[in-house]
Amino acid sequence: MASQRKPRRPEDDFDWFTVSYKTIYIAVFGVLALAGGAYYYYYWRNAPPTPPTEAPAPTVTTARFTSIEGNVKVKPVGQFDWLSADPSIVLRKSDLVRTGPGATAEITFFDGTVVHVRPESLITIEDTSEDFSTKRRRVAWHISSGEVNFQTGKKNVPGSATEISTPTVRTTAGELTDGGIRVAQSGDSDVRVYRGSTQIETKAGEKISLGASEALKVDAAGKAGPKQILLDAPGLQAPPHQTEISYPDPSRATTLLAWKPVPAAASYHVMVDYSPYFNRPLVDQVRKDSSVELRGLDTGKYYWRVAALDREGVEGAFSAFARFTVVRKDAGGGSGGSPPPLVIESLDVRTNILQIKGHTEPGATVTVNEQRVDVQGDGTFNEFIQLDKVGRQLVVIRSTGINGGVNEQKRPVVVTF
């Protein structure tokens, strides 16, 4: 009887091996998966925690008073009452600041911009912010009336802006810019740039650029006039900064203030005050000469500054202030300070008229035989003196310095009639 069993085919072996290899692969994969899971679980449970990422500290975008002189008021946004200004007050957007007669305030913004608010002025803080993503900073204020002087610092990133506006003009000041803006009662706006630059847009839509030593007037309708060139600030000569002037009797003494003339200047605006803010000036006058004599000053500290005006009356930048102190000389205190220089360049006599020419220190007082000689701002003098005596004699020339020191010379002359 023939066998019914089928012969084994090669394909059957192939299927068996295929199934066996798949089983092995699955088993290996399972072992690896378990090992990976165990490692991940162990690492996750025992790994040190990741320290939290610290967010950058936000910039405090505020403005504060850094100086207050006199009656200065603040009206915070959302309030009806005016508050007395105080250094602790933080100025924010839409706050109002008002200065009374003879009062001034200095406001410093978070970006370093400094604003000097002059007497009888009203301003509004319009912006004090920094964009979180771009770091661009923007500070702005509006002048409703009065006058403001300002100085900007360096911009932290391109696109940062300092804006000043009035009812008729809006300006964007560049970095490291010194300037001033005044709003007159007539509504005219006067923009001045002493250093740096600013971009101006008027109410009438005009766009104008101002550079250093340039000014612009915009009328109440927003129409700009021609650009004006500002004269340089005069150089102060006498008394020099931080000088102490000694007088036996200050109430009867004369103090000379002298400065270097400015080319093309027609006159000079002189201010003297007890304060470097010049909010209550003792002297506030316009003179044609490059010097002024002050009589009877009390003992104490004084600040003074000068600005040049052209023939049209346009006023340039004020000089940096200088300070001097008037003291009473001790009656038993000797000869005072160091003697000033006294150089006699020529001494000529014609009959009884003596011509004396020379120079001393700026601010010194010169006399010839106790007759006062006119000393120029730079210390030079050229004077004619009438002598009463006939014949050979000594002429006494005395220079008294601003610190009380005395330099005296005696020269022989012959007088004939």
Spell out the key features of this protein.
mainly beta; 417 residues; elongated; Immunoglobulin-like; six-stranded mixed beta sheet; Jelly Rolls
As a percent range, the share of strand residues is over 45%
> Structural class, judged by helices and strands?
mainly beta
- Shape field: elongated
Q: What's the CATH topology name of the largest domain?
A: Jelly Rolls
Total domain count = 3
Tell me, rounded to a whole number, the average pLDDT: 86
**Rg, Cα atoms, Å:** 40 Å
The counted number of beta strands is 33
Cα separation of the termini:
185 Å
| Fraction in helix | under 10%
Structural notes for this entry:
This protein has 417 residues and is mainly beta. The chain has three domains: 63-229, Jelly Rolls (Sandwich); 236-328, Immunoglobulin-like; 342-415, Immunoglobulins (Immunoglobulin-like, Sandwich). It has one helix and 33 strands. The protein has one helix spanning 10-46; strands at residues 63-69, 72-75, 83-84, 90-91, 96-99, 104-109, 114-117, 122-130, 137-151, 161-165, 169-173, 178-183, 189-195, 198-202, 207-210, 214-218, 228-229, 236-238, 243-247, 254-259, 267-273, 283-287, 291-295, 300-309, 315-318, 322-328, 342-350, 353-360, 365-368, 371-373, 380-386, 391-400, 406-415. It has a 17-stranded mixed β-sheet that branches. Strands 19, 21, 22, 24, 25 and 26 form a six-stranded mixed β-sheet that branches. A hairpin with a 4-residue loop joins strand 6 and strand 7 (114-117). The N and C termini lie far apart (185 Å). The model is unreliable at 13-19 (pLDDT under 50).
